[in-house]
Design goal:
Layout (H helix, E strand, L loop, with lengths): L5 H17 L6 H4 L4 H28 L32 H8 L7 H10 L3 H12 L14 H7 L2 H9 L1 H13 L1 H17 L9 E6 L2 E6 L4 E2 L2 E2 L2 H4 L12 E2 L3 E2 L6 E4 L4 E4 L8 H6 L30 H4 L32 H6 L72 E2 L4 E2 L1 H16 L26
Antiparallel strand pairs: 1-2, 3-6, 4-5, 7-8, 9-10
Length: about 475
Amino acid sequence: MGKPPLRARESAAAQHAAKCRSVGVESKGSAGGTAGPEEASMRMYRAALFLLSLSILGAAVANAAPRAQDPQDPQDQQVPQDQYPQGAPGAYQNFAPDQLDNLLAPIALYPDPLLAQVLLAATFPDQIDEATRFLRAGASPDAIDGQPWDVSVKSVAHYPTVLFMMDNRLDWTTSLGQAYVSQSTDVTASIQRLRAMAHNAGTLVSGPQIQVEQQGPYWAIWPVQPQLLYVPVYDPAFVYIGRPGFYGPFLTFGVGYPIGSWLIYDFRWGGPGIYYFGWGGGLPVWAVRSRPFIRINNVYVNNRYNTVVVNRTVVNRTVNVQNLNSYNAVHRNVVYANAGRTAGAAGVPAGHPVNNQVIQRNINTNDARIQDFRGRDTAGPQMRMDGQGRPATPVTATPNAPPRAEARPQVRPAAPPQAEARPQARPAAPPSSAFDVDRRTFDPGQSSQRGQASRGQMRQPAPAPPQRSSPPPASRPSGGGGRKP
């Protein structure tokens, strides 16, 4: 047979190309041939694999996104405000202005760099206690820099009197840290309010230890000496109000402590409050004077402190409210019963406060269970005591035990009759006795005579031992037996 005509061959090729396009295979014409069904299925498999890879990659990105938002420092986590409902035990409630004044009164007149360290360190009460134990155990102050405490606690540890004061008043320190974490603006306002009161009372003035500067409505306190910082000592009941008839020094100062690179925070009043200056750039006035004497090290001067870090979890701690009620030097009629800060159980009546710092730091004296086991008949289990202070031991009968014979009292044989003893007359006491027993009187003259007689006997020389007499020579017999002269 001959070949089909050209028009028939072209129509057959067109039909084949249409079928290939219907299954997604591109026709390559009569010269290059056409794609087979195996290549088409391979292309569809590759497309499905590509879509599956895209879906897996998208799921991985979605799971990794929340982890990138986790905070780096767990101590800087913010506690949600609705986590603790108002009035719940342990919930933090803001301090009133009068309460803040009473709490801040003991430290409001500290120099600004020291005050900034104290407020930040108060948010780490556990580390304050650790640092106190470290120094009281006899550790060298040079070892402070190597401890794992917050930088603010290390700074305060270079001023032992301040550190020990904060540790002895741990409830006050905790409340101070809670107030700064939750009410930093109110805290700075209270400090300025107290400084203005002291200045108006005439007790806050510049001197050889501190420099008092008014910056608009704000009062700044700076160290005067370039190498030493003096911690003021004062009574809040006098320094902020003044007392008529009292003319003594309202502010006194102890020994000066060194100014070192650990003082890295300061106050910027009217601005951000506490900030990090790092002994470089724009220094405060007092730091300009001290900078030539500062030895810089990376323990304190470090860019990671540009962000001021506080321990926000301090608001979850409980304190003994009874220990806060004693801080009423500025406002007398202020109490701290406006929050569930006490560690005692709800509904337990408050007992008498115990004036012992060690007990108050370790025991809740308002807990009703503290009255148990104190010898009372109505509280706690009682132990019955018999005999010589020993617990009574019950006697248990032993089965099949033979009965014991009754114990009979032993009769001792009568003593043989003796002759009637006649009372012997005691010799009368010598008249030279110093003590007259019958009259119970004391004769100093006789006592003196006896003493002189005793001393006289002691002074007499001891008698010489008797000498032995030598025996006489034996007589020799007479007769011729002797030697002739």
